[in-house]
Request: fold
Amino acid sequence: MIGLAVADGEREIAEEFFELFKTPWKHATSTEKYRVVLCTDGRMDRLDADVYLVYGSTPQAIDLESGHSPRLHERLDVTWQDSKLPIYGPLATFDRTTGTLVGNDLGVDYSHQLGTRRVRRIGYDLFAEIGFLLNQGQPPSDALTPTLELHIALLRQLRSESGVPFLEIPPRPHDYRFVCCLTHDVDFFGIRRHKFDGTLAGFLVRGSIGTAVDLARGERSLSEALRNWRAVLSLPLVFLGLQNDFWDPFDDYARLEKGRRSTFFLVPFKGRPGVPANGTIETRRAVKYQASEVRREAEQVAARGNELAVHGIDAWSDGNAGRSEMGELLAITGRTTAGVRMHWLYFAADAPAHLEAAGFEYDSTCGYNDAVGYKAGTSQVFRLPGTSGLLELPMSIMDSALFYPNRMGLRRRDAASVCEQVISNAQRYGGTVVVNWHDRSLAPERQWSGFYQQLIDNVGRDDQAWFATAQEAVNWFRWRRSVQFSTDAESQRVTVTSTWSPPNGPAGSVRVQWPGRVGDVRVESHRLTNDAITVNL
Reply:
């Protein structure tokens, strides 16, 4: 059990942090003795512990006592082991240090002995950093850095170095290294709906001249070029209904994903661009279909085990609009709630409250339009700030971010390298890899099917990933969040229970770290609601 000493204003963020680093903790009091205390309020002297982990950018009493003079900086990248750890707020460095964090060639941490007690001083404001990541998100320039996971990994190492045994519930199912969700924003659903509009004009240019240019540059194969040109020539037959529409996302993904289940985000209303925060309406945002028009196809794809969710228009800014948008989908699914991802990734500080008021089960909007990686610094499911229980499934990889010329504009080889970094981080830290491949991305003229096939093969190699729908992934992390710990200080015994179990899904793990060794215990999610697990530390 770790004792937590934080200011009142940091409590909500600190509690969420310890849902992501799922380990026993409690708010510290002066009447108890702790093996380890994490202190950010500058008042470690009122607490009794064997080990103190003292975070903060402002001078602390321990700095004076240990002879260190902190030097204040703003916005530094810190080096820890082989990783860059961005610090977005103020940061203290120390001239004399034997620590492991380095910024501007100066130490950002140090160790000190107080009689029989040990102090590890870290010169930044941990929960201010976590609050920035979850509330605002890191800039695209740091997108590929799993910053929040690095904060967790650093704290895990500090606890390990303290020599005090501890346990945690890792953010991955027991038999897998991470979770993968294949998701698809359905923005078009058939080229027949786009007679004489900008979408059709763009398709004709990119499918003819643009394809020839790509072929000449070596950015498209001859077979892809021929397929594009055939699609352009077939348009009259498609519009007359004499040939199948080649923008058919459900069948295309069923063929390619080979039984892996997907989540499809369907637009509830056609012709509605929605109102953005600045009031300037983007007419291009309105789509030409709505969920009710594809009900038969949607019911068929749901019958194959796929999930249907809402591709929201105004839900992010209006709870009543959100209820109306969700109602259109529920008329098809027959369920009582659904997940949501906002069209064009519209979002704002008060969006979580609106989405929760609308009754959505989860959101999956957190991500970049123009980058790949970790907007919140993590790929774990987390609770959105300002809500009581609305969970966020952050998006990792989006096709248009990778390939659009006005975004990352990557060649396929470079895009594969970027995606491999995301997969590598998932192998290391767990969490999720949420892929968003749009409805027309397998079809002419984009033809990103070969890359997509390579991507899901890489994700699924050696059966390392649990492929789940977005709802299943959220349910598994909701179970993990429901796990509770109770400790017996005298016997160093921890009892693990849970208040909720998902309808299905893989087992989790209880991981125990003793000095020099680590052990995992497989835990079926339903077990903890009936029988407790007791671990001796």
Summary: The first strand starts at residue 2 and ends at 5. Residues 481-536 form one domain. The chain has four domains: 2-168, 178-188+248-474, 191-246, 481-536.
